[in-house]
Amino acid sequence: MKDQDKLKLLVSKITEQVIGSMEKTDSGDSDLTSDTLVIFPAFVSSVPLFLSYLEATYPNATYVTFQEIDFSGNTFKTINVATKEECQKLMASLEYYKNIVLAASPISLLKRIANGEDVEFIEQVMTRAILCEKRVSALLDFKLPTLTQGTFFENLAGTLDDLKDMGVDIISLRQSDKVTVKALTLVTEAEVIQAHKKGKNIIKFAAGAIVTPLARDKAKELGISIDQ
């Protein structure tokens, strides 16, 4: 190889490194000491509760907000996202974070993420973080109740279970108990169809429960097991 060719190759490599470094900086990876991105998607009424946990668990986290939140007295890095350009920069920076934490999420947002909806920006961020196999957590400021069949809370349990199946850690800052759903005392065709829509392949029923013939037929048709 001629000296001129070697020089061109060297210049090309240096140029690639410089461009890569610039892109890395532009994407928001200017704080290499932070491996955790905490996202507050909405107004937070219990800021001290979240900060107490977050500061102890992720002392060097970067916080992202979409509206003004009073973090007075704290010195951690905070990014307020309001424009399209800031949204694009945040999305590009995801690859540089190990942990993505969703804090104080509305239940409706959790449901949309669990359903794979990505119309809104925050849903896109969380879905991408999950698909990129980041360590994703959802911090909740309400207790996880013991859930019963046919209530709103059963639907909430299904949402949280779906998120856990997607690899999301569900953490309640009010209690450490896990979400539990009581076994069904009556399994009808409707329960089987509902389980199928949620992508579940097993339905649990309590001892002595009634399982209708139509439920068994529909379960066999849809490939769902009905177990005690």
Short description:
This protein has 228 residues and is an alpha/beta fold. The protein has helices at 3-26, 47-57, 84-93, 107-114, 121-131, 152-165, 189-197, 213-222, and strands at residues 36-40, 62-65, 77-80, 99-103, 135-140, 146-147, 169-172, 180-181, 184-187, 202-211, 225-227.
Structure description:
There is one protein chain. This protein is α/β, with parallel strands linked by helices and 228 residues long. It is 43% helix and 21% strand. It is built from eight helices and eleven strands. Strands 3-2-1-4-5-7 form a six-stranded parallel beta sheet, with helices on one face. A three-stranded parallel beta sheet has the order 9-10-11, covered by helices on one side. The chain is globular, with a radius of gyration of 23 Å. Residues 22-32 and 177-181 have low confidence and may be disordered.
Q: Which blocks of ≥5 consecutive residues have pLDDT under 50?
A: 22-32, 177-181
Kindly report the average pLDDT value: 79
Strand order of the largest sheet: 3-2-1-4-5-7
Helix/strand-derived class? alpha/beta
Number of helices: 8
| Shape, per Cα inertia axes | globular
Element order: H for helix, E for strand: HEHEEHEHHEEHEEEHEHE
**Could you give a short account of the major beta sheet?**
6 strands, parallel
Total DSSP E strands: 11
Helix proportion of residues, in percent? 40-55%
